[in-house]
Amino acid sequence: MSSSVIDFIATEARFGAHNYEPIGVVLSRGEGVWVWDTQGNRYLDCLSAYSAVSQGHCHPKILAAMVEQAHRLTLTSRAFHNDQLALFYEEIAALTGSHKVLPMNSGAEAVESAIKSVRKWGYEVKGVPDGQAEIIVCANNFHGRTLGVVGFSTDPETRGHFGPFAPGFKVIPFGDAAALAGAITPNTVAFLVEPIQGEAGVVIPPAGYFTEVRELCTAKNVMLVLDEIQTGLGRTGKLLAEQHEGIEADVTLLGKALSGGFYPVSAVLSNNDVLGTLRPGQHGSTFGGNPLACAVARAAMRVLVEEGMIENAARQGARFLEGLKDIRANTIREVRGRGLMLAVELHPEAGRARRYCEALQSKGILAKDTHEHTIRIAPPLVITSDQVDWALERFAAILTQDFS
Ligand SMILES: *Cc1c(COP(=O)(O)O)cnc(C)c1O
């Protein structure tokens, strides 16, 4: 390592809160599926900033939209109208079939906003007694890092010593419709769930789960809130992961790839009167819905569709999954995925996934471990067959080694 790499890493460590443990690479440039470090080494990005860079690094059309808008107008606040927000609403509604949109910034903010909205809907429309609203969530969920959200996490690392937390949440196992049926009470306003649990290690529920969930929520007048912040916008090979089961959520949360990685943009989408309960002054965000964010998001959604990225995610995801399944290595316990949301779970005896990620780095691949024994693989949706094959050769080389 040259001194410059050591300086960046050491300086971060000296001044920064140590709430991350990054792989030892300092990146300075990106283009499409590739990123380069400060020494000019090239890597295939198999994390895509946790699926935020689905459109590929520095997509030229999103970049152009951002620069053009930044020259004209960046922030008005919602105290005034701007000439981008209406177009963003129109285009995201047309893309997703939603009726109402609430623009926010980070994913966690979208989750918080959805929680506030479904509670309000519960009191004002469903008729739940004030202060009694219950929201059901799943074990091993990941919905962000704000205080409200970590309060219903089941991960001791995520919630430890951050309490006291807000009441009103009930935790059930993921993928278990009977548990949902048993947990719903007259005061239940919503079921908040990820279509595929990403941070938990790409956990895919049993087929038919969401069909049953949809039926239960409809029967009991419970809002189904799908957190598609990671699974949405083509990541799983469909625009929204809910489409794999042919269902529609009442509330859908988007973030991450909504800006193609240029800017924090998130949104709460609703198909019914949930967002309709919000009145002036009851919710807001200085930056939410700003013209720069809207212009970036519009371009990010446009290229996703125009350049066939969703279909490509389905095609290349299938190829990647097949290729991973073909790797004969006794380090591998299970390979799973849908579209380009993939994971290799290692046998506990094979050693920590992080060791394999560090070895992958030396072969020109950046991937991230999650939960000790799982390597998550989520390249930009613009990846080609040749690049998938190139990656597979390297995964095969590393996974057949034993780092235990
Ligand atoms: C990343 C993520 C979030 C949080 O988004 P931030 O922008 O980091 O706040 C919420 N839910 C899911 C499913 C995510 O993957």
Question: How would you characterize the overall build of this protein?
Answer:
With 404 residues, the chain is of the alpha/beta class. The chain has a domain at 60-306: Type I PLP-dependent aspartate aminotransferase-like (Major domain) (Aspartate Aminotransferase, domain 2), CATH 3.40.640. The chain is built from 13 helices and 15 strands. The chain has helices at residues 3-15, 48-51, 60-72, 85-96, 107-126, 147-150, 156-159, 177-183, 209-219, 291-306, 309-326, 353-362, 385-399, and strands spanning 27-31, 34-37, 42-45, 100-104, 134-138, 169-172, 188-193, 223-227, 251-254, 266-270, 332-338, 341-346, 365-366, 368-370, 374-377. The strands form three sheets. Strands 4-10-9-8-7-5-6 form a seven-stranded mixed beta sheet, with helices on both faces. It has a four-stranded mixed beta sheet with strand order 1-2-3-13. A four-stranded antiparallel beta sheet has the order 11-12-15-14, with helices on one face. A hairpin with a 4-residue loop joins strand 2 (34-37) and strand 3 (42-45). Helix 3 (60-72) runs antiparallel to helix 10 (291-306), helix 4 packs parallel to helix 10 (291-306) and helix 11 (309-326) runs parallel beside helix 13. The longest helix has 20 residues, at 107-126. The model has no long low-confidence stretch (mean pLDDT 96). The structure holds pyridoxal-5'-phosphate. Pyridoxal-5'-phosphate (PLP) is lined by residues 50, 106-108, 111, 142-144, 194, 198, 227, 229-230, 255-256.
